[in-house]
Design brief:
Layout (H helix, E strand, L loop, with lengths): L12 E6 L8 H14 L5 E8 L1 H12 L7 E5 L11 E9 H11 L3 H16 L7 H18 L12
Amino acid sequence: MSPRRSPAAQQPCVRVSTRKGPHAITPGRVRSMTTTMLLALGRADAELSVMLVDDATIRALNKQYRGIDKPTDVLSFPMLEGDFSGVQPELLGDVVISIPTATRQAAAGGKSLADEVTQLLAHGILHLVGHDHDTRTKERAMVAETQRLSASVQSPRPRKGVRGG
């Protein structure tokens, strides 16, 4: 176990791995986004892992754990619900993102891959901390929180016609 850090110096522990890569978005960038989101949630003592995978890998996981034999964009595997709840540091679980699916969704939605992965990452993390979207009310709250977390990592872009300085 790692030594306890002072709250001011505390940072989440984030592990990012890639399967069937390389991918257009780097593990370092995903780690940075994840850390920012966890801090925005007040989870400085959290640990989680993020896996960037291909469609075959996420399809196999989706079939095994959800009984759905097709690829999906993001899966979350929370640890807060079982024997590990209450463990310090807080072991949140795993987020798995399919980069090919994210790439297709980004193109279809007219956004960058980074923006799409940011949304998927926020969505996955929110599932790890207990959010769900099984009712309209919960879905609205989760969408709003996903947007808030995504905005916490996205740098402001200049508006057209507006110049700095």
